[in-house]
Amino acid sequence: MARIAFDCDEPGATTFLDLIADRVDSVLLNDQPLDASRIGSARVMLEGLEETNELIVTADMPYSRLGEGMHRFLDPADGEAYIWSESVVNNARRVFGCF
Questions:
Q1: β-strand 63-64 against 69-74: which pairing, if any?
Q2: Which helix (H) or strand (E) holds 74?
Q3: b/e per residue, 11-47, with b = 16+ CB within 10 A?
Q4: Dihedral (CA of 8, 49, 43, 28) sign
Q5: Res 19 pLDDT > 90
Q6: What pLDDT sits at residue 84?
Q7: How far apart are alpha carbons 31 and 53 in whole angstroms?
Q8: The whole model's pTM is what?
Q9: Phi and psi dihedrals of 37, rounded to 5?
């Protein structure tokens, strides 16, 4: 789950959240659930913004082995799991929703 607080200079405006997830369980904007039709494969459309906003996203974000997003590696030498991120601008949305 991620909680994002943000302001809007033009109340009523529309924007979007970049998000690439395996599964999106819920998106709440200012305590109101977003209709599933607003949630796409890489973006969540946010409409009717208020001056001050809170967005709560509950989603499963995939691990990667291709150099993008969050990585998980099980080391056969020591049996330990290692996790790290590759969050350059276009891949951060594979780890968490972002603007």
A1: parallel
A2: strand 69-74
A3: eeeeeebbbbbeebeebebeeeebeeebbeeebbebe
A4: positive
A5: yes
A6: 77
A7: 9
A8: 0.81
A9: -65, -15
